[in-house]
TrEMBL record:
MF terms in GO: structural molecule activity
Summary of subunit composition and partner proteins: The basal body constitutes a major portion of the flagellar organelle and consists of four rings (L,P,S, and M) mounted on a central rod.
Protein task: Assembles around the rod to form the L-ring and probably protects the motor/basal body from shearing forces during rotation.
NCBIfam families to which the protein is assigned, alphabetical: PRK05303.1
Localization (cell): Bacterial flagellum basal body
Gene Ontology CC: one annotated term: bacterial-type flagellum basal body, distal rod, P ring
HAMAP family in UniProt: FlgI
Protein name (record): Flagellar P-ring protein
Signal peptide start-end: 1-18
GO biological process, one term: bacterial-type flagellum-dependent cell motility
Chief location of this protein within or outside the cell: other
Length: 364
């Protein structure tokens, strides 16, 4: 009974580590493209650009009105409060077709206080080749909220940016070469020679040996059989295959901006000793008023600053860190040091230099 239970547990552990090929790779050439445009948002409740400080808003409005047959007299100083100049960005999806709707993000580029309640006017979205691929227009949804009265204000989230769901229509299609060749290339999300070989072996076992070959740690080339009229069906079958994940590289990620430390399950420790002391410097400055002894003695009142500096160093005792073979023991060992996240960053770097931290340390 024990043997069967042990085998069942091993099978469950193996299945738990299996991932689909679609989650580990992308198809080369099948990707999104960035679009960008410049436009105007109207209908704001007095929260638009101050046109005296953002002349490009007035210039854009004059150009738009002239295209609509309205001529603004030269020298007119338009004091607008309900108009804002914005940048519009979107992602052109792979295999997009004319007439398809995509989401757009609208961001203020002037000094508008809020885009809430605004409407984006028709804005052409261009690609890197300066060609128009989509037209955006619609009502903006702003996720933030704010209020002000009597010189006081409160704000939740960002008010100068919003989103328009299905706010742009594809007008131009990109030429594609998918399905025209006899080779398909898969690209791994992360460089890994072991994983590339395992994916190749899995495809060969399913489709026949010689169907796939790993070119390097990121690229896997798949041969399309002769007479196969649908590469879509071929990829659909391959992407749903499951691959047992190999052991990952032991890594410790340190975010110096937020003070966070993240490590994966492969991190281990060797026995070492760590001494970490806290050095605190306190500067106390007070002003002391010195007055003359007699009211009419001819003296002057003088303010004399007095500064007191206190230097303290706490802790610093040498502590033993036991060897740890799994992540739980690593966390328990590091917690015994009682170090803050900022101190832990320096400790981990020193441990790696000393050779007792079995992991790569990356600072982002």
């Amino acid at each position: 009974m024990t043997k069967y239970l042990f085998g069942l547990l091993m099978l469950v552990a193996t299945l738990a580590q299996a991932d689909r090929i679609r989650d580990l790779t992308t198809v080369q050439g099948v990707r999104e493209n960035s679009l960008i445009g410049y436009g105007l948002v109207v209908g704001l409740d007095g929260t638009g650009d101050q046109t005296t400080q953002t002349p490009f808003t007035t210039q854009t409005l004059n150009n738009m009105l002239s295209q609509l047959g309205i001529t603004v007299p030269a020298g007119t100083n338009m004091q607008l409060k309900n108009v804002a100049a914005v940048m519009v960005t979107a992602k052109y999806p792979a295999f997009a077709r004319s007439g398809q709707n995509i989401d757009v993000v609208v961001s203020s580029m002037g000094n508008a206080k809020s885009l809430r309640g605004g409407t984006l006017l028709m804005t052409p979205l261009k690609g890197v080749d300066n060609q128009v691929y989509a037209l955006a227009q619609g009502n903006i949804l702003v996720g933030g909220a704010g209020a002000s009265a009597g010189g006081s204000s409160v704000q939740v989230n960002q008010l100068n940016g919003g989103r328009i769901t299905n706010g742009a229509v594809i007008e131009r299609e990109l030429p594609g070469t998918f399905g025209s060749g006899n080779m398909i290339s898969l690209q791994l999300n992360n460089d890994d020679f072991t994983l590339a070989q395992q994916i190749t072996d899995t495809i060969n076992r399913s489709r026949g040996y010689g169907s796939a070959s790993a070119l390097d740690a990121r690229t896997i080339q798949i041969r399309v059989p002769t007479g196969n009229s649908s590469q879509v069906r071929l990829l659909a079958d391959i992407q749903n295959l499951e691959v047992n994940m190999p052991a990952q590289d032991a890594k410790v990620i340190i975010n110096s901006r937020t003070g966070s430390v993240v490590m994966n399950q492969e991190v281990t420790l060797d026995t070492c000793a760590v001494a970490q002391g806290n050095l605190s410097v306190t500067v106390n400055r007070q002003a002391q008023v010195s007055q003359p002894d007699t009211p009419f003695g001819g003296g002057q009142t003088v303010v004399t600053p007095q500064t007191q500096i206190d230097l303290r160093q706490n802790g610093g005792a040498l502590q033993r860190v036991n060897a740890s073979a799994n992540l739980n023991n690593v966390v328990r060992a590091l917690n015994t040091l009682g170090a803050s996240p900022m101190e832990l960053m320096s400790i981990l770097q020193s441990m790696q230099t000393a050779g007792c931290l079995r992991a790569k340390v990356e600072i982002i």
